[in-house]
Design brief:
two-stranded antiparallel sheet, two-stranded antiparallel ribbon, 19% strand, 4 strands, 133 residues, 44% helix, Arc Repressor Mutant, subunit A
Length: 133
């Protein structure tokens, strides 16, 4: 039986959301090969080969070492997107665990934009509806 995280319930069960969820849940614990990520995050190899290079190119994940032919990776917690997603993940879990609301402020390092403030409550965390095309 597959257990769906609160993060995936809110943002939808997609490979990218499962990848984010996996990277955030395992941050600081271990480094992982792409094969490990496929197995644990339930993402097919072909899909991970398509989406993972962008995470590496942007610096969201970083190479930690090589073991034989396998390259090991870990979430770069200092990347702005990672920091935002970690805080969003925490906020969602806090709201589901304790109810109430959680305030999140995102400061974008851009002179022309003001900080983004989000107030997250359980009522705002309704799962996204499936795309209809």
């Amino acid at each position: 039986m597959k257990v769906e995280s609160n993060f995936v319930r809110v943002f939808g069960d997609t490979p990218i959301n499962r990848l984010w969820d996996f990277l955030i849940d395992t941050r600081g614990l271990f480094d992982f090969s792409m094969t490990d990520i496929c197995e644990v995050a339930d993402i097919s190899w072909n899909t991970l080969k398509r989406i993972f290079p962008k995470f590496v190119e942007e610096g969201i994940v970083k190479e930690t070492r090589k073991i034989g032919r396998a390259t090991m990776y870990m979430l770069n917690e200092n990347h702005p997107k990672s920091a935002f997603m970690i805080n969003m993940h925490k906020a969602i879990n806090m709201v589901f665990a304790h109810g109430g609301h959680f305030k999140l402020e995102v400061v974008v390092k851009n002179r022309n934009s003001a900080p983004v403030r989000l107030e997250i409550t359980k009522s705002t965390l309704k799962p996204l509806s499936p795309k209809t095309e």
